[in-house]
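Many introductory courses stop at the sequence. We go one step further.
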Amino acid sequence: MEKQTGRGKFALVTGAGSGIGRATALGLAGAGYRLALVGRRAEALQETAELIERAHGLGLSLVQVCDVSLAAEVAQLFERIAREFGRLDLLFNNAGLAAPAIPIDELSFEQWQAVINVNLSGSFLCAQAAFKLMKTQTPRGGRIINNGSISAHAPRPNSAPYTASKHAITGLTKSLSLDGRAFDIACGQLDLGNALTEMAQPMTRGVRQANGEIAVEATMDLAHAVSAVLYMASLPLSANVQTMTVMATTMPFVGRG
């Protein structure tokens, strides 16, 4: 990316060890951001850091293993960000988890809770800590981008935990957007459809549809998801993308099946 929209700015990417998180971290580094890479797997985070170093020659400010569903670990993370960055300009709430695609009566409460803890509570905890820092830093304010999903609007079969968590993210995004106005904190949501990550690989082989059939679905290059985040991040705090949907054009989202 030629335009250095993030030069001198600081960003936190959760779930940065793979997929959308890793690709977005690379994109933000290319735009000039200094980064905090966060996830649960140290080796995967280090691989992301090395990819950024090779691609952009940037020294990362920090790489930290953190389970975003645990309040104590999130608090430690943001204490380190405040200490080493001094501020936070962008939070990409990306860390996510899905449960097995099994009938709801076969789903354990532990499987349900694990998804809610990471997808919803993790996003809340990181946003809460970001608010505390963004409200008091100078210059004041910042941006939060929540990674939602088109599942919030049209669920897949046997996806109750994931769909419920992403539907809740939409409510969280709107509340954060409203509550952040007085403090120059902008919050928006990105709803992606079939960006070709490891998680989306089954789409290329065939997945269950609403009518019970198994069908291959169209996917899109991960670069389009990254471009969407970079666009949202590039806006001045006086402008905001409240919700953006980016999807594979012919995937089964719009229409009746």
